[in-house]
Amino acid sequence: LEVCTRCGGRAVYTRRYSGEALCAPCFKESIVSKTNKTISRYNMIARGERVGVAVSGGKDSLSLLLVLDELSRSHDWHLTAFSIDEGVEGYRDEAIANARAITERLGLEHATVSYKELYGFSLDQALDWKEDRSVSSCSFCGVFRRRAIDEAASKAGVSVVATAHNLDDYVQTFLMNLLHGDVERLAWLDPAYSDESFPVRRVKPFMELYEEETALYAYLSGLPFQSVSCPYMHEGLRSEVRDYVNQLEAGHPGMKHVLLKSSLGVVSRFASTKLSVPCTRCGKPSSSGVCNVCRLKEAVNQQINYGDGPPRAGGG
Ligand code: SF4
Ligand SMILES: [Zn+2]
Ligand SMILES: [Zn+2]
User: Is the CB–ligand 1 distance for residue 232 below 6 Å?
Assistant: First the structure.
């Protein structure tokens, strides 16, 4: 194999768009410094700020935790981690256990917020209501997850939440929204966006890193890889978009970065502040008087009650 262009050691990775070959320690170091650059380029986190790290327990979020922990010392950040437990039997438990193990090792606080405790039903229960849904499982789940992250953030007293979306995620999401004709969600990709769905500032410190680089970082750091995936995930179009973008990148190294630049240019055009009114049910910001969370929660509860039939007096 090649020789590390930085220290002469044995290279484990070649960065195609820059031509650099890197050994394991130099590669890991480069991930930390690239993340640091992204954070300062987009003013993601201020010195001394309290930062919540949303940790799904997957390899990317665990990597984010390690990298931010390392950077936190020189930036005086106060990190706290939290996980959202959607309530998917046999899937999330493993990830949350991984998240807990790593946060413990780093000496960070870690809180778990569940759909069950916040909304009264788990995702499993909610999705029993399968038949006449107009939204996909993941969009449905996402409405509740965004609110759960805000609840966790306000409990932890943080002003910014960091998530582990990488360059591939970002570019795929951008293209997916275009292909779905979903202009509203294009705006969500703006690093400065805030509205009903995102009242607490969200930042993506990995958004300039390739998926293959975050995966290698996780591997070289000995982070656990999750063995099961969510049973409700339907990749469909996304995997076609992923293949297409990977093909483009293979033929034209650096193309993903160009797509990121273009996306940022487009989404910043949507950066108008949205008017919001308090939700009449829960008081959180809403665009129409009843927030998405309350709207969906009522629909689920109706279905759950209807599905179980009315409670019978006396029992039998
Ligand atoms: S894959 Fe979709 S349904 Fe499953 S936890 Fe993630 S967002 Fe929710
Ligand atoms: Zn080296
Ligand atoms: Zn509400």
Answer: yes
233 lines ligand 1 (CB under 6 A): yes
Per-residue pLDDT of the chain (316 residues; tens, 9 = 90+): 689 999 999 999 998 888 899 999 999 999 999 999 999 999 999 999 999 999 998 899 999 999 999 999 999 999 999 999 999 988 888 899 999 999 999 999 999 999 999 999 999 988 876 555 556 788 889 889 999 999 999 999 998 999 999 999 999 999 998 998 877 778 778 776 666 666 688 999 999 999 999 999 999 999 988 878 888 887 778 899 999 999 999 999 999 999 999 999 888 877 655 667 888 999 888 888 898 899 988 888 887 776 544 433 333 3
Q: Report the Cα 104 to chain-centroid distance in Å.
A: 21
Determine if ligand 1 sits within 6 Å of the CB of residue 141.
yes
| 215 Cα–ligand 2 center, Å | 19
C-alpha span between 129 and 127 (Å, rounded): 5
Phi, psi of 253 (to 5 degrees): -55, 130
Strand, coil or helix: 285: strand
